[in-house]
Each structure stands twice: as C-alpha cells, then as structure tokens.
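Ex. 9. Protein: Gfo/Idh/MocA family oxidoreductase.
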Amino acid sequence: MIKAGVLGAGHLGKIHLRLLSQSDKYELVGFYDADEANAKKVEAEFGYKYFNTIDALIAAVDMVDIVTPTLSHYDCAKKAIAQGKHIFIEKPITNTVEEAEEIRELLSHHNIRGQVGHVERFNPAFIAVKDKIENPMFIETHRLAEFNPRGTDVPVVLDLMIHDIDIILSVVKSKVKSVSASGVSVISDTPDIANARIEFENGCVANLTASRISLKNMRKTRFFQRDAYISVDFLEKKCEVVKMKDAPEIPGDFDMVLQNAEGVKKQIYFDNPDVTDNNAILDELETFADAINNNTTPVVTLHDGTEALRVATMIINQF
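Predicted structure tokens for Gfo/Idh/MocA family oxidoreductase:
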C-alpha cells in the first residue's frame, strides 16, 4: 500500500482524508494544516494523525496529496518533489503557468509521478460518452453555482470554468488559436461571471459560461460533431447521444426522419450509454495509485493541468 499524507484539512481536504482512509490502495499516514486549531479539531473528531510541520508529514509518506489554497500549491509541491515524493495536486495546478512549468520540470528530473485533481474527467456521465466524442466542431458549456464564499479568492475562471477548460482540451485534438472573453465582478474583487470563446486551429469553437452568483446550480456541456450531438450533465450525472444516419428507403412508423433543402434524408436515433455511478474523487485518487504502482502515465498529468491553467490565464488576461 502507498503511504499517503494530505496537506490541507479544509472542506475538500477532509473529503480526501476520508476517502484515502477507506481506500485499499493507500495507507493514510496523516495530515498537515496551517490552521493549528482546525487541525487539532479534525484530529480529535476523526482520529487522523496531525503532523505539526509540512516537512515532517512529507518525510513520513510516499505520496503527498496537496489540497491547500491555490497560492500555496507551488511551495508545497516543491517541498514534496525535493524529497522524492509523488504528488497529487488539486486544481488549478498552481497560481501561475510559470510555477506549473517549473513543477513539471522538477517532477521529470526526480522520476516521480504527478496528477492534477481535475475531477470531472472521472464524472460517470463524461466517462460514459467520452469514446463517442470524435472531432467536435462546436462545444457549449454552462457551469453555474449559487454563491459560496469559499473559492472567491480566485476569479470564477479558476474556481469553476477551469473544469470545463480541461474537459474541452482533453477531447479537442488541436492547438488553441485564439481566446476572447469578458468577465464581471459583482460580489467579489475578481470576476464572478465570465464568458469565453476558444477557437482552435482545426476550426472547433468552444463557448464557455461560468457564474458563481446564480440562483441555481448547473453543469452542462454540449458537443456538436458531424452527424452527432452529445450532451453531458455533470451535475445530474446524465448524458444523451443523438446521432444521424442515412434514412432507410422506407422509414418505419416510429422513425424520426429529417429532410434538408437538397432533399437528403437523415434518420435521427438515440444511442444513450449506461452511466455507472461512482465516487469520482476516490477514482481519481485510486487511478493515481495505479499509475504509481505500475509506473504508467496518470489520467490527468501535470502537463494537462498546466495547459488548462494556460488557457484559463489567457481568458483572465482578457478582462
């Protein structure tokens, strides 16, 4: 079993602690949190061992799970890598692209594994349709959330939209050509609502909207490609695949057939895959254990996390 330690025992850190303690692939050694009062409360309530310094925790483990505020990701990762420890680091990977690239370089020199916590890659609805997404040419995403003070230390692009940026970059096999965006600060000092348009060299266009002051929660993405429309509801964990094929000569009574102006007839049919429920955070942690044990590439690499941050930064620089 891989000895794991968690840096950060806030809302998400406590979830990681619980899941690591339950996993068959990890031995949870303990945690560190900069807020001593909170750390002692977590230790007393859940029984996880509290280390009073970062260095002491890192020295005692094989893998460091970094679930601290984004501004400290870089320093935490550098400390862990310097001691030759594998790192799982929550999104966004770091505060700047330069920091992310330095961490990637350090990781490769030490021949250790790193993964970024872009958890939507493990959403069961996305997993169910991922293989059906082929060369999408238009993508539309809406990620809306009710106001929560947690996370407002960064723009909504790094708080919410970066999930969708990573998903889009994982399915569009082309370089980003241009980015245009606008954002508005309503409650926070940084934008709370943002819209971005990403154009790729292959002609694909992605339109992303994110808000953290919505009256309802929504996490939906739609992919449009030749002869297919794919919808993923990341919140409800549902998906829909609508495909078109040449219509039969004699359609059945219940066949849905469209005819364009040139007289070409297409039949619409549904190809909705089964969605297998899972715990996405547990899955991302356990696939990282597999990558460590088997010396294979993690599902979400530090390169992936860096590229998502790079595009997010391009968007933020438009404001």
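Check your answer against this statement. Residues 2-112 form a domain with the Rossmann fold fold (CATH 3.40.50.720).
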